[in-house]
Amino acid sequence: MTELPHYRPSSLCFSLGRAHGGLTDIAFSRFVSRETGSRFDHVDYVELPPGADIGFHRHLPGEEEIYIIMDGNGKMTLEGNTFAVEGGDVIVNPPGGAHALLNDSEAPMRLVVVQCSAP
Fold it and tell me: Angle at CA 81, nearest 5°, toward 24 and 83?
């Protein structure tokens, strides 16, 4: 029987860095990618400390991204519209879409980011 991949935040190795020109460091772990044999460009587990952000950026026309907010609160900007997000929300960034995310709360925000490209 083939063992299925199973990921738990406590078992991931995190890196610190600024995402897309963000103002502060965030913690992230890229645990699935094309390099690991996946069809996804990448799947990241991300932790934004209070005040941290993923800077405003635009993807290529063939790239699509989904943000799954696990917990925390913040503000998402998507195609020029800014709105509140919280744990349990799923945001679909359309192909070629422009977006940013800010943790404007006093608690960490945790999310999963899934990006895929058209074949």
Answer: 70
